[in-house]
Amino acid sequence: MAEPKENVLMEKITSLCKRRGFIFQSSEIYGGIQGFWDYGPLGAELKRNVKELWWSTMTRMRDDVVGLEATIIMHPAIWRASGHVDTFSDPMCDCLLTKKRFRADQIEFQSGNAYHYAGAKDTATGKEVVEPYAVLLAAGKPPESARKTAAQFYAQRGLQTVELIGETVAKVENSQRFNPENGSLLTPPVPFNLMFKTYVGPTATEADVAYLRPETAQAIFAQFKNVHETSRQKVPFGVAQMGKAFRNEVTPRNYTFRSREFEQMEREFFIKPDEAVEAVTAAVATPAAKGHPGEPQPNWGWQLWHQYWVEERIKFYEGIGLPRTTLEEYWQKPEELAHYARACVDILFKFPFGTQELEGIAARSDFDLSQHERCSGKAMGIFDEELRTAFGKLPPQKQTELKDRYYAARLKYLTKMGVSAAEAGAAAQEDADGLAKGQYIPHVIEPSAGVDRLILALLANAFTEVTETDAKGKSETRVVLRFHPRVAPIKVAVLPLLKNKPELAAKARAIFESLRGHMMAFHDEAGSIGRRYARQDEAGTPFCVTVDFETFEGIKDGPQAGVKDTVTIRHRDDGKQERIATSELLPWLLVRVK
């Protein structure tokens, strides 16, 4: 899909992020570096809030998920086993004229007249360059434009006065072989591995090659046995991890959406294969309807676990301020799935530049643990006493049926990985016999989300322009970031009505000090109170607490008449104000921002 040439909303969002300290271009004073971004004071708080909420939701509030923090650089054999060394690539094309690089699958489809040239010669020296070249022009555009572009191409090859040779014209429909910016022919697509390569040790030889991790998930698989044994968890259970990942994207784009350095929030949830579930519970439950299936049950197979985690992840997004109406579920078609995946749902968000992926929830079968077992020679399976006991009580016919199904699944995996027929058959039979003894390799459901994409989604969803007209008829448009209070960088701003009144300033400072240990609070006394409110609206602060003269004089009328030591609370989204006793302020806020 072609990117829009102009996106006014994105320009406003990026301008606000720079102006208010959410996001800066990395290395900006040296011209920046494409695909890398730094988070400023407000952005760092926003990002920390999102990660803390994810971690709390995915680990601390669950009995069946534990955490892991692994290294960024791991043994390169891990990436060979996972397939990243051989297959983790994007198709890449270069413009023959400008050398600009494109992802071949993201070039917009174009139609028109393609002007082909066999070569060119220098009329002054007689030198010839025999090299085919082509330029695409929209239908109706004069050929002089193509000839000018072609002359530039051949001039780069040492010709001064260019005479084109062998011009022919052909009609082209829906082609991706030309640069959409200038019509120049592109090089044929070639695979471009996305992993950043580095070296471990002092010699920097091929034997020392390592990679910056392109995802956090593989560390979870590699450490599965250690985590399983030390955490005393039983399948089903999950392992969660947050951290940096790196991909050498061909064309980073759409601000922070597709970057070369980013953070992931991934969780691998290990489940029993359906054959083991059926052996223990007599039957595997199947989804009865769309929506949340409820609390997990012992007879759930991979389908219900997958559905459960899709709904849990959508519930998380709703809980931090992304309404379900802003999200879409895209169920990948069979031909789109990775060869090992049984299903994958992409949760999409409606960004200003189009509806794009926030998170993927994949049912990955037992591929990952199987790969690391096969490539490392270390056992990745587990022993389940309940399964062994239950299997022994099954009728022989049922035992045979389950073993045959497990055998077929294991054989399919081994054959797909290139294991010889005889070896694959023997290994699959050993695995099927192991199932009867309570042994299996867990399957996995993987929700994988990008932190930076989520931050961008929250910014886009919160961005609101409000136009207000004063008594004189003058209109002014200002920005309000309507963050959910749980993710807002600043939860509350404490403002003295006037900074030149010592009693107001001292009281405001004391209130600020009493709040800052419980939440991110901000103290501001510079400028008019209206200007300070506007600054906090732009920062997304949900509540402003103002210390004014009524704080000391007491409320003059209304239900709270006579009550002293109160403050004004201003609500960001509607501008409404209410009075509250200072002693009640902290619990009032905690209920609304946690």
Detailed description of the structure:
With 594 residues, this protein is α+β, with helices and mostly antiparallel strands. The protein folds into 3 domains: 278 residues, Bira Bifunctional Protein, Domain 2 (BirA Bifunctional Protein, domain 2), CATH 3.30.930.10; 97 residues, no CATH class; 104 residues, Anticodon-binding domain (Rossmann fold), CATH 3.40.50.800. It is built from 18 helices and 29 strands. Strands 3-15-16-22-19-18-17 form a 7-stranded mixed sheet, sandwiched between helices. Helix 2 crosses helix 14 and helix 8 packs across helix 11. The mean pLDDT is 94.
Question: Which tags fit this structure?
Answer:
594 residues; Rossmann fold; 26% strand; alpha+beta; BirA Bifunctional Protein, domain 2; 3 domains; 34% helix; 18 helices
In short:
This protein is of the alpha+beta class. Helices cover 34% and strands 26% of the residues. The chain has three domains: 8-88 and 198-381 and 441-453, BirA Bifunctional Protein, domain 2 (2-Layer Sandwich), CATH 3.30.930.10; 94-190, no CATH class; 490-593, Rossmann fold, CATH 3.40.50.
Number of helices: 18
Side-by-side strand order of the widest sheet: 3-15-16-22-19-18-17
Strand runs, count: 29
Give the proportion of residues in helices.
25-40%
Spans of at least 5 consecutive residues whose pLDDT stays below 50 are none
The fourth-level CATH homologous superfamily of the largest domain is: Bira Bifunctional Protein, Domain 2
Chain-averaged pLDDT: 94
**For the report, how would you describe the main beta sheet?**
7 strands, mixed
CATH architecture of the largest domain: 2-Layer Sandwich
Backbone shape: flat
End-to-end separation in angstroms reads 39 Å
The CATH class of the largest domain turns out to be Alpha Beta
Number of individual domains: 3
Report the CATH topology name of the largest domain: BirA Bifunctional Protein, domain 2
Bin the strand percentage.
Answer: 25-35%
The structure class reads alpha+beta
What is Rg? 31 Å
